[in-house]
Amino acid sequence: MTRARAWRERRGAGHARKLGPIDLGSVVLILGVCASAHAQASVLSVSSPSVRAGELTAETGIAFEEDRASDLDGFSELAIEFGYSPTAHWKVAIELAAEDAPGADAGYAVSALKNTFALARQGDAAPFDVGLRLQYEFAHIDGEADEAAARLLLRRREGSLEYRFNVGVEREVGSGANAALIGDVRASLRYHITDALAPALDYLGDTGSLHRLQRFEDQDHRAGPVLYGRLTDHIQFAAGYLAGLSGDAPDHTLKLALEVTLAAGARD
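The structure corresponding to this sequence follows.
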């Protein structure tokens, strides 16, 4: 579930821990400096199953949403993530996220532990790179439950075209948790003009409860153009716009991301 949607469902039941006079823009600046301005995906991303042994990365992502017909108009989120791959088949990462919701103080919302396992590589008797991500999110909002998630990650490269597909499920954990299983679907089609530049079409879908599937208009589906690029061998970026495809999705979403490789891993 997108955190904006989760915030709307919990509104009135809890609140983020206050940051005093500091707004999210200041949080973005502070965390951006602490991370040396890194990041590539944490927020609204379509992940790759690729893992490189010995690689150490720092990532940060920012998303802004606009939906004048909703109480979520102006919702924004910042995430920062540090990851390390001890082997060629396992990557572990820690993510910290802050959010600024309308009518509430900006606050520290979630910390997450992510484990990504590379299961197969394209060409090694498999048509895709295949991976599995297991994630646990610790909520830092009063009245909010923790969340466990599992996601299948697929990637295929054919010449200049790259296809990514993620499908997963999420469920709240702990006291007061909602027992519903939530569906999450993401896809990206990228065209690599060069090794350093790839325009793409990204899609993000949140089905809501899989036990009682709602109609399309009541789910969160969005899609739009995203530009992925590489500034140096160690710095990558992404910038994109997503338009709402369903009634429950925000009308407009802007996402920005940056990733810095602090220690290069073994080449594929």
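The first strand starts at residue 56 and ends at 66.
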